[in-house]
Amino acid sequence: MTRYDRYSMPPAEETAELTALAAELVERKFKQFGYPFDQGVAMTAYNKWLVDTGLADITLINVGDPWKKDWDMLSSDVIERKVLDFWAKHYGFEDNYWGVITNGGTDGNMHGIYFGRKLLERETGIMPILYVSEEAHYSVKKLADVQNIEECVVRASPAGRMDTEDLEAKLDPSRPALIVIAVGGTFKSAIDDQEAVSAVVERVGPCAVYRHVDMALMGGYLPFLDDPLARSVVDVRKMRFDSLAVSGHKFIALNEPCGMFICKREVLEKTRSAPIPYLADKVIPTISCSRSGFAALKMYWRIAVTTEEGFRRQAKHVLKMTEYLRRRLEDTALFTLVNPFANTVCFTRPADRIVHEYALACNQTAEFGCLAHVVVMQYFTEELIDRFIDDMISSTV
Ligand SMILES: Cc1ncc(COP(=O)(O)O)c(C=O)c1O
Protein backbone atom coordinates (compact mmCIF):
# COMPACT_ATOMS: atom_id res chain seq x y z
CA MET A 1 0.00 0.00 0.00
CA THR A 2 1.25 3.48 -0.75
CA ARG A 3 1.12 6.40 1.62
CA TYR A 4 -1.74 7.76 -0.48
CA ASP A 5 -3.94 4.68 -0.43
CA ARG A 6 -7.39 5.91 0.42
CA TYR A 7 -8.29 2.84 2.49
CA SER A 8 -5.30 2.96 4.80
CA MET A 9 -4.89 4.82 8.06
CA PRO A 10 -2.83 8.02 7.89
CA PRO A 11 0.83 7.63 8.89
CA ALA A 12 1.53 7.26 12.64
CA GLU A 13 2.30 10.92 13.24
CA GLU A 14 -0.91 12.24 11.67
CA THR A 15 -2.97 9.51 13.30
CA ALA A 16 -1.54 10.42 16.70
CA GLU A 17 -2.34 14.09 16.09
CA LEU A 18 -5.94 13.27 15.16
CA THR A 19 -6.34 10.86 18.06
CA ALA A 20 -5.12 13.46 20.53
CA LEU A 21 -7.70 15.91 19.19
CA ALA A 22 -10.42 13.23 19.39
CA ALA A 23 -9.58 12.56 23.05
CA GLU A 24 -9.80 16.27 23.87
CA LEU A 25 -13.12 16.70 22.05
CA VAL A 26 -14.71 13.67 23.68
CA GLU A 27 -13.48 14.72 27.12
CA ARG A 28 -15.08 18.20 26.77
CA LYS A 29 -18.30 17.17 25.06
CA PHE A 30 -20.59 17.59 28.07
CA LYS A 31 -19.29 21.07 28.82
CA GLN A 32 -20.76 22.82 25.78
CA PHE A 33 -23.54 24.63 27.60
CA GLY A 34 -23.79 27.81 25.55
CA TYR A 35 -24.81 26.27 22.23
CA PRO A 36 -27.87 24.22 21.27
CA PHE A 37 -26.24 20.95 20.27
CA ASP A 38 -27.25 17.66 21.79
CA GLN A 39 -24.03 15.91 22.77
CA GLY A 40 -25.92 12.68 23.43
CA VAL A 41 -26.23 11.98 19.71
CA ALA A 42 -25.32 8.25 19.93
CA MET A 43 -24.49 7.69 16.25
CA THR A 44 -22.40 4.51 16.75
CA ALA A 45 -25.03 2.13 15.34
CA TYR A 46 -25.60 4.42 12.35
CA ASN A 47 -21.87 4.61 11.63
CA LYS A 48 -21.55 0.83 11.93
CA TRP A 49 -24.47 0.44 9.52
CA LEU A 50 -22.70 2.71 7.03
CA VAL A 51 -19.66 0.42 7.17
CA ASP A 52 -21.74 -2.79 7.01
CA THR A 53 -23.70 -1.64 3.97
CA GLY A 54 -20.79 -0.15 2.05
CA LEU A 55 -22.28 3.34 2.25
CA ALA A 56 -19.23 4.44 4.24
CA ASP A 57 -17.34 4.21 0.96
CA ILE A 58 -19.59 6.09 -1.44
CA THR A 59 -20.26 9.74 -2.25
CA LEU A 60 -23.93 10.64 -1.91
CA ILE A 61 -25.17 14.03 -3.08
CA ASN A 62 -28.75 15.18 -3.46
CA VAL A 63 -29.54 17.93 -5.95
CA GLY A 64 -32.55 20.21 -6.39
CA ASP A 65 -36.10 18.97 -5.90
CA PRO A 66 -36.39 15.74 -3.87
CA TRP A 67 -39.59 14.95 -5.87
CA LYS A 68 -37.91 15.12 -9.29
CA LYS A 69 -38.39 12.14 -11.60
CA ASP A 70 -36.14 10.38 -14.17
CA TRP A 71 -32.93 11.11 -12.30
CA ASP A 72 -29.90 8.89 -12.98
CA MET A 73 -27.43 10.21 -10.42
CA LEU A 74 -27.20 8.38 -7.05
CA SER A 75 -29.41 10.05 -4.47
CA SER A 76 -31.36 9.48 -1.27
CA ASP A 77 -34.33 11.53 -2.56
CA VAL A 78 -36.78 8.80 -1.58
CA ILE A 79 -35.69 9.05 2.07
CA GLU A 80 -35.45 12.84 1.98
CA ARG A 81 -39.13 12.94 0.98
CA LYS A 82 -40.08 10.70 3.92
CA VAL A 83 -38.18 12.93 6.34
CA LEU A 84 -39.85 16.04 4.97
CA ASP A 85 -43.27 14.34 5.14
CA PHE A 86 -42.72 13.55 8.82
CA TRP A 87 -41.79 17.10 9.79
CA ALA A 88 -44.22 18.89 7.44
CA LYS A 89 -47.07 16.97 9.09
CA HIS A 90 -45.88 18.22 12.50
CA TYR A 91 -45.99 21.79 11.22
CA GLY A 92 -49.58 21.37 10.07
CA PHE A 93 -48.97 20.97 6.32
CA GLU A 94 -50.93 18.35 4.46
CA ASP A 95 -49.88 17.47 0.90
CA ASN A 96 -49.74 21.12 -0.03
CA TYR A 97 -46.09 21.68 0.82
CA TRP A 98 -42.66 21.55 -0.73
CA GLY A 99 -39.32 21.29 1.02
CA VAL A 100 -35.73 20.26 1.04
CA ILE A 101 -33.10 19.16 3.55
CA THR A 102 -30.71 22.06 3.80
CA ASN A 103 -27.08 22.53 4.73
CA GLY A 104 -28.14 24.18 8.02
CA GLY A 105 -30.27 26.89 9.58
CA THR A 106 -28.74 29.71 7.58
CA ASP A 107 -29.34 27.79 4.35
CA GLY A 108 -33.02 27.43 5.33
CA ASN A 109 -33.28 31.16 5.99
CA MET A 110 -31.52 31.84 2.72
CA HIS A 111 -34.20 29.88 0.85
CA GLY A 112 -37.02 31.57 2.81
CA ILE A 113 -35.69 35.02 1.96
CA TYR A 114 -34.95 34.06 -1.65
CA PHE A 115 -38.40 32.56 -2.29
CA GLY A 116 -40.10 35.40 -0.43
CA ARG A 117 -38.30 38.03 -2.42
CA LYS A 118 -38.94 36.33 -5.75
CA LEU A 119 -42.61 35.77 -5.04
CA LEU A 120 -43.26 39.31 -3.84
CA GLU A 121 -41.35 40.84 -6.72
CA ARG A 122 -43.18 38.69 -9.28
CA GLU A 123 -46.56 39.51 -7.79
CA THR A 124 -46.08 43.26 -7.50
CA GLY A 125 -43.11 44.23 -9.63
CA ILE A 126 -41.75 46.08 -6.57
CA MET A 127 -38.74 45.09 -4.46
CA PRO A 128 -39.85 44.15 -0.93
CA ILE A 129 -38.48 45.43 2.35
CA LEU A 130 -37.31 42.75 4.78
CA TYR A 131 -38.49 43.31 8.37
CA VAL A 132 -36.74 41.45 11.19
CA SER A 133 -36.30 41.99 14.90
CA GLU A 134 -32.97 43.03 16.33
CA GLU A 135 -32.98 39.80 18.39
CA ALA A 136 -33.25 37.47 15.36
CA HIS A 137 -30.24 35.45 14.22
CA TYR A 138 -27.57 37.49 12.48
CA SER A 139 -27.82 35.28 9.39
CA VAL A 140 -31.09 37.01 8.42
CA LYS A 141 -29.41 40.41 8.27
CA LYS A 142 -26.44 38.98 6.42
CA LEU A 143 -28.72 37.27 3.89
CA ALA A 144 -30.64 40.49 3.24
CA ASP A 145 -27.26 41.97 2.43
CA VAL A 146 -26.27 39.06 0.16
CA GLN A 147 -29.60 39.21 -1.68
CA ASN A 148 -29.48 43.01 -1.86
CA ILE A 149 -32.82 43.50 -0.10
CA GLU A 150 -33.52 46.65 1.84
CA GLU A 151 -33.68 45.67 5.48
CA CYS A 152 -35.62 47.26 8.31
CA VAL A 153 -34.58 46.22 11.81
CA VAL A 154 -37.46 46.26 14.26
CA ARG A 155 -36.85 46.90 17.96
CA ALA A 156 -37.34 44.08 20.45
CA SER A 157 -38.78 44.12 23.95
CA PRO A 158 -36.38 43.64 26.89
CA ALA A 159 -37.32 39.93 26.93
CA GLY A 160 -36.37 39.69 23.25
CA ARG A 161 -39.71 39.69 21.37
CA MET A 162 -40.28 41.77 18.23
CA ASP A 163 -41.85 45.08 19.29
CA THR A 164 -44.96 45.13 17.10
CA GLU A 165 -45.62 48.82 17.81
CA ASP A 166 -42.23 49.56 16.28
CA LEU A 167 -43.12 47.25 13.36
CA GLU A 168 -46.35 49.19 12.85
CA ALA A 169 -44.49 52.49 12.85
CA LYS A 170 -41.94 51.22 10.32
CA LEU A 171 -44.08 49.08 7.99
CA ASP A 172 -44.25 50.76 4.57
CA PRO A 173 -47.70 50.21 2.96
CA SER A 174 -46.40 51.09 -0.52
CA ARG A 175 -43.84 48.24 -0.66
CA PRO A 176 -44.24 44.45 -0.28
CA ALA A 177 -43.23 43.18 3.16
CA LEU A 178 -40.97 40.16 3.67
CA ILE A 179 -41.33 39.52 7.39
CA VAL A 180 -38.90 37.15 9.10
CA ILE A 181 -40.29 35.88 12.38
CA ALA A 182 -38.04 34.53 15.14
CA VAL A 183 -39.18 31.40 16.96
CA GLY A 184 -37.07 32.15 19.01
CA GLY A 185 -34.37 34.76 19.12
CA THR A 186 -30.81 33.53 19.26
CA PHE A 187 -29.77 34.77 22.69
CA LYS A 188 -32.96 35.08 24.76
CA SER A 189 -35.01 32.54 22.78
CA ALA A 190 -38.12 34.73 22.75
CA ILE A 191 -40.90 33.83 20.32
CA ASP A 192 -42.21 36.70 18.17
CA ASP A 193 -45.97 37.17 18.45
CA GLN A 194 -47.22 36.10 15.03
CA GLU A 195 -50.84 37.05 15.74
CA ALA A 196 -49.78 40.57 16.72
CA VAL A 197 -47.65 40.77 13.55
CA SER A 198 -50.69 39.70 11.48
CA ALA A 199 -52.84 42.34 13.18
CA VAL A 200 -50.26 45.01 12.28
CA VAL A 201 -50.21 43.77 8.69
CA GLU A 202 -54.04 43.99 8.55
CA ARG A 203 -54.01 47.55 9.88
CA VAL A 204 -51.20 48.90 7.72
CA GLY A 205 -52.07 46.85 4.60
CA PRO A 206 -48.80 46.55 2.64
CA CYS A 207 -49.44 45.62 -1.01
CA ALA A 208 -48.15 42.04 -0.50
CA VAL A 209 -46.74 40.05 2.42
CA TYR A 210 -44.56 36.94 2.80
CA ARG A 211 -43.85 35.45 6.23
CA HIS A 212 -40.79 33.27 6.84
CA VAL A 213 -40.32 31.72 10.28
CA ASP A 214 -36.84 30.96 11.62
CA MET A 215 -37.46 28.14 14.11
CA ALA A 216 -33.92 26.74 14.07
CA LEU A 217 -33.89 25.28 17.56
CA MET A 218 -37.46 25.44 18.86
CA GLY A 219 -38.96 24.00 15.67
CA GLY A 220 -37.46 20.66 16.76
CA TYR A 221 -39.43 20.39 20.00
CA LEU A 222 -42.45 22.73 20.00
CA PRO A 223 -44.54 20.24 17.93
CA PHE A 224 -44.06 17.67 20.70
CA LEU A 225 -45.15 19.71 23.71
CA ASP A 226 -48.52 18.99 25.37
CA ASP A 227 -49.49 22.66 25.51
CA PRO A 228 -51.57 23.47 22.38
CA LEU A 229 -50.31 27.06 22.56
CA ALA A 230 -46.73 25.83 22.03
CA ARG A 231 -47.77 23.64 19.11
CA SER A 232 -49.77 26.43 17.48
CA VAL A 233 -46.65 28.63 17.19
CA VAL A 234 -45.20 26.29 14.55
CA ASP A 235 -48.52 25.29 12.97
CA VAL A 236 -49.03 26.72 9.49
CA ARG A 237 -52.83 26.32 9.80
CA LYS A 238 -52.86 28.61 12.83
CA MET A 239 -50.11 31.10 11.99
CA ARG A 240 -50.40 31.23 8.19
CA PHE A 241 -46.67 31.61 7.52
CA ASP A 242 -45.36 30.88 4.02
CA SER A 243 -42.14 29.07 4.86
CA LEU A 244 -39.99 27.89 7.72
CA ALA A 245 -36.40 26.92 8.46
CA VAL A 246 -35.39 24.46 11.18
CA SER A 247 -31.98 23.07 12.08
CA GLY A 248 -31.24 19.35 12.09
CA HIS A 249 -28.20 19.59 14.37
CA LYS A 250 -29.99 21.23 17.27
CA PHE A 251 -32.93 19.52 18.97
CA ILE A 252 -33.24 16.95 16.16
CA ALA A 253 -29.78 15.87 17.29
CA LEU A 254 -27.76 15.19 14.18
CA ASN A 255 -24.03 15.46 14.72
CA GLU A 256 -23.19 17.90 11.93
CA PRO A 257 -24.91 20.83 10.24
CA CYS A 258 -28.09 20.22 8.30
CA GLY A 259 -31.67 21.46 8.45
CA MET A 260 -34.94 21.74 6.58
CA PHE A 261 -36.68 24.36 4.53
CA ILE A 262 -40.42 23.81 4.14
CA CYS A 263 -42.88 26.09 2.33
CA LYS A 264 -46.40 26.13 0.97
CA ARG A 265 -46.48 24.40 -2.40
CA GLU A 266 -47.83 27.55 -4.05
CA VAL A 267 -44.59 29.34 -3.09
CA LEU A 268 -42.65 26.90 -5.25
CA GLU A 269 -45.17 27.14 -8.07
CA LYS A 270 -45.16 30.93 -8.09
CA THR A 271 -41.37 31.19 -8.19
CA ARG A 272 -40.50 28.65 -10.88
CA SER A 273 -37.14 29.17 -12.57
CA ALA A 274 -35.78 27.98 -15.92
CA PRO A 275 -34.56 24.36 -16.34
CA ILE A 276 -30.81 23.64 -16.13
CA PRO A 277 -29.66 21.70 -19.23
CA TYR A 278 -26.69 19.88 -17.64
CA LEU A 279 -28.85 18.64 -14.78
CA ALA A 280 -31.11 16.54 -17.02
CA ASP A 281 -33.00 19.68 -17.94
CA LYS A 282 -34.57 19.83 -14.52
CA VAL A 283 -35.89 22.95 -12.85
CA ILE A 284 -33.66 23.31 -9.78
CA PRO A 285 -35.49 25.35 -7.14
CA THR A 286 -32.63 25.27 -4.62
CA ILE A 287 -29.79 27.81 -4.50
CA SER A 288 -26.92 25.45 -3.67
CA CYS A 289 -26.53 22.64 -6.19
CA SER A 290 -25.13 19.84 -3.98
CA ARG A 291 -26.26 18.93 -0.51
CA SER A 292 -25.52 15.90 1.64
CA GLY A 293 -27.44 12.76 0.71
CA PHE A 294 -26.31 11.33 4.04
CA ALA A 295 -28.16 14.04 5.97
CA ALA A 296 -31.46 12.54 4.77
CA LEU A 297 -30.38 9.05 5.86
CA LYS A 298 -29.25 10.29 9.25
CA MET A 299 -32.40 12.29 9.80
CA TYR A 300 -34.56 9.29 8.87
CA TRP A 301 -32.50 7.11 11.22
CA ARG A 302 -32.96 9.68 13.99
CA ILE A 303 -36.74 9.74 13.53
CA ALA A 304 -36.94 5.93 13.44
CA VAL A 305 -34.87 5.32 16.57
CA THR A 306 -36.42 8.18 18.54
CA THR A 307 -40.12 7.74 17.59
CA GLU A 308 -42.80 10.38 18.19
CA GLU A 309 -43.12 9.26 21.78
CA GLY A 310 -39.35 9.69 22.22
CA PHE A 311 -39.43 13.22 20.82
CA ARG A 312 -42.28 14.02 23.24
CA ARG A 313 -40.28 12.61 26.18
CA GLN A 314 -37.16 14.52 25.15
CA ALA A 315 -39.07 17.78 24.74
CA LYS A 316 -40.55 17.39 28.23
CA HIS A 317 -37.17 16.46 29.69
CA VAL A 318 -35.46 19.48 28.17
CA LEU A 319 -38.05 21.89 29.61
CA LYS A 320 -37.97 20.15 33.00
CA MET A 321 -34.18 20.49 33.14
CA THR A 322 -34.48 24.14 32.03
CA GLU A 323 -36.75 24.82 35.00
CA TYR A 324 -34.37 22.96 37.31
CA LEU A 325 -31.39 25.03 36.12
CA ARG A 326 -33.37 28.26 36.46
CA ARG A 327 -34.33 27.36 40.03
CA ARG A 328 -30.77 26.39 41.02
CA LEU A 329 -29.43 29.68 39.59
CA GLU A 330 -32.08 31.68 41.43
CA ASP A 331 -31.18 29.81 44.65
CA THR A 332 -27.71 31.30 44.28
CA ALA A 333 -29.33 34.76 44.05
CA LEU A 334 -28.58 35.26 40.37
CA PHE A 335 -30.84 37.13 37.99
CA THR A 336 -32.41 34.77 35.41
CA LEU A 337 -34.55 35.16 32.31
CA VAL A 338 -36.42 32.26 30.69
CA ASN A 339 -38.98 32.98 27.99
CA PRO A 340 -42.16 30.90 27.54
CA PHE A 341 -41.43 27.44 26.06
CA ALA A 342 -37.70 28.26 25.87
CA ASN A 343 -34.90 25.85 26.77
CA THR A 344 -32.48 28.75 27.15
CA VAL A 345 -31.65 30.22 30.55
CA CYS A 346 -30.08 33.69 30.56
CA PHE A 347 -28.39 34.77 33.79
CA THR A 348 -25.82 37.21 35.14
CA ARG A 349 -22.48 36.49 33.49
CA PRO A 350 -20.36 34.32 35.81
CA ALA A 351 -16.57 34.34 36.24
CA ASP A 352 -14.41 34.01 33.11
CA ARG A 353 -13.22 30.55 34.15
CA ILE A 354 -16.81 29.25 34.06
CA VAL A 355 -17.61 31.03 30.80
CA HIS A 356 -14.66 29.34 29.08
CA GLU A 357 -14.83 25.96 30.76
CA TYR A 358 -18.51 25.53 29.85
CA ALA A 359 -18.37 27.39 26.51
CA LEU A 360 -21.12 29.78 27.64
CA ALA A 361 -22.46 32.34 25.17
CA CYS A 362 -22.46 35.90 26.56
CA ASN A 363 -24.10 39.15 25.53
CA GLN A 364 -24.19 42.70 26.80
CA THR A 365 -27.84 43.77 27.19
CA ALA A 366 -29.16 47.29 27.74
CA GLU A 367 -31.71 46.23 30.36
CA PHE A 368 -30.02 43.46 32.35
CA GLY A 369 -26.29 44.12 31.97
CA CYS A 370 -23.92 41.40 30.84
CA LEU A 371 -25.63 38.02 30.61
CA ALA A 372 -24.56 34.50 29.81
CA HIS A 373 -26.86 31.78 28.58
CA VAL A 374 -27.11 28.02 28.81
CA VAL A 375 -29.10 26.11 26.21
CA VAL A 376 -30.49 23.03 27.93
CA MET A 377 -30.38 20.03 25.63
CA GLN A 378 -31.30 16.34 25.93
CA TYR A 379 -28.03 15.36 27.65
CA PHE A 380 -28.67 17.59 30.66
CA THR A 381 -29.35 15.86 33.99
CA GLU A 382 -29.85 17.16 37.52
CA GLU A 383 -26.36 15.84 38.37
CA LEU A 384 -24.75 17.74 35.49
CA ILE A 385 -26.57 20.94 36.49
CA ASP A 386 -25.64 20.49 40.17
CA ARG A 387 -21.98 20.09 39.20
CA PHE A 388 -22.18 23.28 37.12
CA ILE A 389 -23.74 25.21 40.01
CA ASP A 390 -21.10 23.88 42.44
CA ASP A 391 -18.38 24.97 40.01
CA MET A 392 -19.93 28.42 39.73
CA ILE A 393 -20.11 28.80 43.49
CA SER A 394 -16.52 27.65 43.98
CA SER A 395 -15.31 30.07 41.29
CA THR A 396 -16.65 33.03 43.28
CA VAL A 397 -15.04 32.16 46.64
C1 LIG B 1 -32.39 31.22 15.60
C2 LIG B 1 -31.27 30.74 14.70
N1 LIG B 1 -31.39 30.85 13.38
C3 LIG B 1 -30.42 30.44 12.53
C4 LIG B 1 -29.26 29.88 13.01
C5 LIG B 1 -28.19 29.49 12.03
O1 LIG B 1 -28.10 28.12 11.87
P1 LIG B 1 -26.78 27.43 11.26
O2 LIG B 1 -25.71 27.61 12.27
O3 LIG B 1 -27.20 26.00 11.10
O4 LIG B 1 -26.49 28.07 9.98
C6 LIG B 1 -29.07 29.72 14.38
C7 LIG B 1 -27.84 29.13 14.91
O5 LIG B 1 -27.57 29.05 16.06
C8 LIG B 1 -30.11 30.17 15.25
O6 LIG B 1 -29.99 30.08 16.59
What structural keywords apply?
397 residues, alpha/beta, Aspartate Aminotransferase, domain 2, Aspartate Aminotransferase, domain 1, 2 domains, seven-stranded mixed β-sheet, four-stranded antiparallel β-sheet, 13 helices, 41% helix, 17% strand, globular, binds pyridoxal-5'-phosphate
What oligomeric state do these chains adopt? Answer: single chain
Q: What is the helix/strand order?
A: HHEHEHEHEHEHEHHEEHEEEHEEHEEH
Question: How far apart are the termini?
Answer: 59 Å
Low-pLDDT runs: none
CATH architecture of the largest domain: 3-Layer(aba) Sandwich
Instruction: Compute the CA-based radius of gyration.
Output: 22 Å
Spell out the CATH superfamily of the largest domain: Type I PLP-dependent aspartate aminotransferase-like (Major domain)
Shape: globular
Which structural class do you get from the secondary structure elements? alpha/beta
Q: What fraction strand?
A: 15-25%
Most strands sheet: 7 strands, mixed
What number is the mean pLDDT? 96
State the name of the first-level CATH class of the largest domain: Alpha Beta
Helical coverage, percent range: 40-55%
CATH topology of the largest domain: Aspartate Aminotransferase, domain 2
What spatial order of strands do you see in the largest sheet? 2-8-7-6-5-3-4
Overall tally of domains:
2
Description:
α3 (77-90) runs parallel beside α11 (293-331), α4 packs across α5 and α11 crosses α13 (382-396). This protein folds into two domains: 57-303, 3-Layer(aba) Sandwich (Aspartate Aminotransferase, domain 2), CATH 3.40.640; 308-396, Alpha-Beta Complex (Aspartate Aminotransferase, domain 1). The model has no long low-confidence stretch (mean pLDDT 96). 41% of the residues lie in helices and 17% in strands. The longest helix is centred in the last third of the chain and has 39 residues, at 293-331. The chain has helices at residues 12-27, 44-53, 77-90, 105-124, 138-146, 164-170, 194-204, 228-233, 236-239, 265-270, 293-331, 352-357, 382-396, and strands spanning 61-63, 97-102, 129-133, 150-154, 177-182, 209-214, 243-247, 259-264, 275-276, 282-283, 290-292, 336-337, 344-348, 361-365, 369-375. α7 (194-204) links the parallel β5 and β6. The strands form four sheets. It has a seven-stranded mixed β-sheet with strand order 2-8-7-6-5-3-4, with helices on both faces. Strands 12-13-15-14 form a four-stranded antiparallel β-sheet, covered by helices on one side. Residues 104-106, 137, 139, 186, 214, 216-217, 247, 257, 259 line the site of pyridoxal-5'-phosphate (PLP). The site of pyridoxal-5'-phosphate has 12 residues, from α4.
